[in-house]
Amino acid sequence: MTKKAVIVFSGGQDSTTCLIHALPLYDEIHCITFDYGQRHRGEIEVAKQLCKKLGVAAHKILDASLLNELAVSSLTRDNIPVPSIDGTASGLPNTFVPGRNILFLTLASIYAYQVGAQTIVTGVCETDFSGYPDCRDEFVKAINKAINLGMDYPLQIETPLMWLNKAESWALADYHQKLELIKQHTLTCYNGITGSGCGDCDACDLRAKGLKHYIENQTKIMSGLKTKLGL
């Protein structure tokens, strides 16, 4: 039986790390990228380029602009500024796009059904993240169950980064000898700047702190990662 996986692929650090981790594990990879009118829509072109670099022929870009119409966030509205890192914010950040992962995982599941994939891989994580409720393990397990019931199809949603901190995510990229690719060619920044980004938004802050921590503690973190993932 051919092992097929659908990667929810934004072209950012996390989804690209998931892709490079998945490549040796599956016979056939399909990447799906969502265009929802996001502020950092440069990620769509980055995703295209990364698929070419990594030899992924099956890359679908899906119009999900209805999300932009419904979900009010600084990532869907140009008149709402992306917050800078000042340590004073409380509650959910305005970069939270309500329903985004509900929609993305639902659409990715329909696509997986059509191409006969048994697995969906997504880069959500609740160890180092911005507090988004739809990145939690509890949510992923709940929607996985609902999707399987709703389609009567045995899909498994895999979250390889769920219990990794950002330093360990960098270590995983390094383990696959793709550290420089992730550093230079992914787009994580909410303001749409590839590589190290703007350095001022929460996404850039998490990314930079994780990389610094990994570089300073490389041997220890890599050893821990291998134990954690059984590499």
Please describe what this structure looks like.
This protein is α/β, with parallel strands linked by helices and 231 residues long. The chain contains 9 helices and 5 strands. The protein has helices at 13-22, 42-53, 66-70, 100-115, 137-151, 166-175, 179-185, 202-216, 218-229, and strands at 4-8, 28-35, 58-63, 119-121, 156-158. It has a 5-stranded parallel beta sheet, sandwiched between helices. Helix 6 packs across helix 9. The two termini are 24 Å apart.
Count of DSSP strands? 5
Please identify the oligomeric state: single chain
The span between the termini is 24 Å
Query: In one word, what is the shape?
Result: globular
Helix/strand/pairing category: alpha/beta
Strand order of the main beta sheet, please? 3-2-1-4-5
Strand content: 5-15%
Number of helices: 9
Low-confidence stretches: none
User: Over the alpha carbons, how many angstroms does the gyration radius reach?
Assistant: 17 Å
The residue-averaged pLDDT reads 93
For the biggest sheet, the summary is:
5 strands, parallel
Order of helices and strands: EHEHEHHEHEHHHH
Roughly how much helix do the residues carry, as a percent range? 40-55%
